[in-house]
């Protein structure tokens, strides 16, 4: 015996009509929904209108749901240090909200960039490509960040108050996927240059036989066993040495300029001496107006000048 209930709601009426369309008998539906046969026939006459109403309601609910989801998207500020991770998180949010449009993704990413990072892709923002703007932006943004990280790795990175193993992990993160193509010996040397002089001296005998991870772990233990005051002195000594080397380079450049100037002056003087050879001082200074002449003098018209 089927459970019976009153078909009062639109949803129940639509469900009844769907079952009727699938071939269930009017009598069976009359028993299941506790309605008369005539009522079912009346509902069947209104079938098209009821189904149209329900479809429109579903579409309105879907549209409202999508609008709500889109409004809820809020990407975090862009992370220049790890752009791949940032884009992965953005993709996760887009997926949760069923956002697939390249233009929509592109707009969300632009809105999350601060002015200094937006300036790096200014041309793309002002004149976005007609196709795949989001993918193009992601590629350019990632490439710009990789270049920035490489510059930081080569010029600005030092140990600071970190452990050597922490510095190593940070340097590896800066390289990202490019670490596979970097020569191990070169990367090891870049890492060692960031360590205090005293630590490098202790590690000097092991640098060729140990990998960089092992060297970093040993450096951790060395720093843990070294008094802070010694490290401070070594750091200052390193800074003083770099400053002294810069001053020496400046002095070398000044010496080269001075030597160059002296050489030029000597060449000019020799040239003047050659041109004036055989002419006395009076004719060199006064030419044809000279009242005196000192022999020997080869000046033209010399016979007219009083000696």
TrEMBL record:
Subcellular location(s): the record lists: Nucleus
Q: Name one Pfam family in it.
A: DUF7041
Principal location listed in the UniProt entry: nucleus
Question: Which InterPro entries does its entry note?
Answer: DUF7041, Homeodomain-like_sf
All copies of the DUF7041 domain together span 75-154
GO cellular-component term (any): nucleus
- In its UniProt entry, what is this protein called? DUF7041 domain-containing protein
Q: Which organism is it from?
A: Trichuris suis
């Amino acid at each position: 015996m089927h459970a019976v209930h009153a078909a009062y709601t639109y949803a129940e009426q639509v469900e009844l009509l769907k079952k009727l369309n699938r071939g269930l008998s009017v009598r069976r539906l009359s028993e299941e929904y506790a309605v008369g046969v005539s009522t079912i026939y009346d509902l069947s006459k209104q079938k098209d209108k009821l189904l149209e109403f329900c479809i429109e309601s579903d579409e309105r609910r879907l549209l409202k749901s999508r609008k709500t989801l889109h409004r809820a998207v809020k990407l975090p500020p862009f992370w220049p240090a790890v752009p791949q991770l940032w884009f992965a998180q953005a993709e996760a949010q887009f997926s949760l909200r069923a956002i697939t449009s390249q233009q929509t993704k592109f707009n969300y990413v632009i809105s999350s960039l601060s002015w200094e990072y937006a300036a790096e892709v200014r041309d793309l923002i002002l004149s976005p490509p007609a196709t795949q703007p989001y993918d193009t932006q992601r590629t350019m943004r990632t490439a710009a960040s990789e270049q920035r990280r490489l510059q930081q790795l080569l010029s600005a990175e030092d140990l600071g108050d970190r452990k050597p193993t922490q510095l190593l992990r940070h340097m590896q993160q800066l390289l990202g996927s490019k670490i596979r193509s970097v020569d191990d010996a070169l990367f090891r040397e870049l890492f060692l240059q960031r360590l205090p002089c005293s630590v490098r001296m202790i590690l000097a005998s092991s640098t060729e036989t140990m990998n960089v991870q092992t060297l970093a772990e040993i450096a951790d233990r060395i720093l843990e066993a070294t008094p802070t005051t010694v490290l401070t002195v070594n750091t200052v000594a390193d800074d003083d040495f770099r400053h002294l080397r810069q001053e020496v380079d400046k002095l070398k450049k000044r010496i080269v300029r001075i030597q160059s100037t002296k050489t030029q002056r000597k060449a000019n003087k020799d040239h003047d001496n050659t041109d004036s050879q055989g002419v006395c001082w009076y004719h060199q200074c006064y030419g044809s107006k000279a009242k005196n002449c000192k022999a020997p003098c080869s000046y033209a018209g010399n016979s007219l000048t009083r000696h």
